[in-house]
Specification:
- The chain is mainly α and 68 residues long.
- The chain has one domain.
- Helix 1 packs parallel to helix 3.
Length: 68
């Protein structure tokens, strides 16, 4: 995969995960965070998994902060 395609797919994964999980419960974000983390551990460096991991972690963190 070329670097341009990797960054494009990673950005699309980050944006779509943020858009789909924005108003959901924290359990969805934590589930996707753990699954993408396991996928990163097994698969190695992957831009789509990293974008999903980053955005779901950010959403989970924001939901925790808003509930406090």
């Amino acid at each position: 995969m070329t670097p341009l395609a990797a960054y494009t797919f990673g950005g699309l994964a980050l944006f779509s995960c943020w858009f789909l999980l924005k108003d959901k419960d924290i359990r969805y974000a934590l589930g996707i965070l753990s699954l993408s983390g396991i996928g990163l551990y097994i698969d190695g460096p992957n831009s789509v998994l990293f974008g999903t991991f980053l955005s779901s972690g950010w959403i989970a963190l924001n939901q925790v902060v808003f509930k406090v």
